[in-house]
Queue: 2 jobs
Job 1
Amino acid sequence: MQWVGLPPLAAAVSNAGGLGILTALTQPNPEALRQAIRETRKLTSKNFGVNITLLPTINPPDYEGYAKVAIEEGVRIFETAGNSPGKLIKYFKDNGCIVIHKCTTIRHAKSAQRLGVDVLSIDGFECAGHPGEEDIGGLVLLARAAQELQIPYISSGGIADGRGLAASLALGAAGANMGTRFMCTVEAPIHQNIKEKIVASTEQDTVHIFRTLHNTARVFKNKVSTEVVSIERRPGGAKFEDVRELVSGARGKKVYETGDPDYGIWSAGVSVGLIKDIPTCEELLKRIEKEAEEVIDGLAKLKVPNEKAKL
Ligand code: NAD
């Protein structure tokens, strides 16, 4: 949700009954995050969280600075993702915060559990952005979470509707995390063309870049991502410097500003194939809840023939 997790969307998600999340690195520096938190508070009286993602970046961010400012501003729910968040987790827990850590393997989930996180966000291979390097789909990953984890977990990756939520609950999750689906809402602060592009796309419209650099990222399939993949496949492979200009986040940001889907790299999950409209966050969450209840009720009815068979 880099460049998308901004105050209007985080507030709209929280106002609709979800937990909106500001993405810290979308802000150029910690003081800008402070202003974004204040702006969000003006838009919602509900809780919201801040995400801090630790992955390779062109310019190293001041992670501790972002964390400190958010705590000073009274944020008490954090989502961490990416590499070794140990230091940050300790800092958040020392300050009485709830920490949700996103991970793509059970090994990492167990290690985060040992470090004291409160909730795990179990991120299947369907997800937008960085799915890790192990390629484990959500179905197995969530079922493995049910076998192995002692703390609550939510599903992440591939969730965009009530069926996805019901499936997540069936797999032991306490809820679901959605990114791509929220990009395609009225309140998402991105160009209308990009929302319409998502609606028009199918589940075959994402691609992995950075596979050969061991920093795999699922992004929308467009001119730039196709070029990056072909550079990576050249004999002898590619170094980050060979694709740096093409993949820079600053260039990706322009996609959302100008509405040109081919301008740069932008994250998108396989769930683009499930997205058929651009509702408000409130319409979306109400619909997902209703659909999930219908699916669960439908499944409950399946028990009846078995009960009769026993008689
Ligand atoms: P950026 O402009 O610094 O980098 C652009 C892309 O190149 C990012 O995907 C980054 O991970 C990758 N990258 C940078 N240096 C690299 C290196 N030396 N080797 C391999 N890959 C390298 O990043 P940005 O777009 O400003 O985003 C800021 C941070 O947020 C990055 O760490 C990015 O990965 C992360 N992010 C995470 C997700 C997610 O799925 N959790 C989605 C979007 C962005």
Note: The domain at 7-189 is CATH 3.20.20.70 (TIM Barrel).
Job 2
Amino acid sequence: EGFLKTVEARNEDINAFIEINTDEAIRRAEEIDSRIKRGEKTGRLAGLVIGVKSNINVQDFTVSAASKTLENYRGSYDATVIKRMKQEDAVIIGMTNMDEFAAGSSTETSFFGPTDNPAAPGRIPGGSSGGSAAAVAAEMCDIALGSDTGGSIRNPASHCGVMGFKPTYGLVSRQGLLDLAMSLDQIGPLAADVSGIKLALEVISGHDPADPTTIDGAADLEADLKLDEMKFGVVKEFFEVTDDSIDRIIQDKLGVIADEGAEIVELEFSHIDLCLPTYYLINYVEFFSATRKYDGRKYGHRIEDVCGPEVLRRIHMGSYISQKELSGRYYKRALQARSLIRREIQRILRDVDVILGPTVPKLPHSLGEELEPMEMYAYDVLTVIANLAGIPAASMMAGTVKGVPVGLQLQAKPGDDARILAAMREIA
Ligand code: GLN
């Protein structure tokens, strides 16, 4: 009831949730409460209130991906992550706002209007999981789920001053997620603290027979490491593309971490220029293919007839690049560049536990300010690497510039999600 009151008081201004199911939330909460009172065993998420990004299937909620294309699509089943959360007695209160089909970094392209940033009112919350980050920042829920294809969990976590975690590719099932680019997408949690992030990951991770790209067995998320046992890498090229004001906040934070006994070494990453072109080429092609099912027959609207300009750009570009005579020139080369990027980041990760640096290279712009596509894409330069390489990455607040939150990004080897969690716990 407390969370619902906050939603009622603040959501009209913030627009973090685009759908709330008050009756169902109260019914679930009461049912769990009465089980607690009877002394029955309850799940690990009992009493926790969850918001879900609108591109993840939840039974009887609208799974619109914030697009007019799917405005009438009601979830007819629960995604694996949702099933697992419900089994542990989570209370799902609603669906959060996002960029249309998760294709953006600002949550301004939603068919349902933009979301405001609760930590820096009047600015974008970041994206594409901007509603999820804003819902956590405004204390409208305990934990929110997001999806991250090129930064969409970490970017809004950074701008809204909360924590966000993109797991190793395959740690969490994508079954029931409307894909943006399936070789890059991962579902992950946003929360105010590390214990919320870890708990959510424990529940949603692990093998899923319905998603053949998931890991075998359960995820190991325990690492009992202290700061003075950890070695962090700092990549100088990441700072060269970052605004000075953000650079300073991150450097200050690194100073504090070093003072507490961690070892910090400098690393070089030579492919920073390749990251955005490689990411967007792959994104366009995979997204184009994912959108062919929205042809108007099953879901009501044909996507090209109703979508916004960014989604249309990706469909056109993806279609163009996919043509046989062009795919060698663009798509195949992007796949080669992806291998280079993956090898290079894995090489520099060999010598350290975690790479630390800025999450987003610039501060969030004001709502309503119009950016060119390339300026928008520039937000993603530091986050796409983890998706291209399939490695785990997270963002937590490092400090603020004139009151605007700035995120510290942590990246580790594939499967080393536990080490990032340990580092977050020790740094927080
Ligand atoms: N901003 C990036 C894009 O527009 C990332 C989106 C995401 O991670 N879903 O593709």
Note: The pocket of glutamine is lined by residues 102-105, 128, 147-152, 180, 283, 380 (CB under 6 Å).
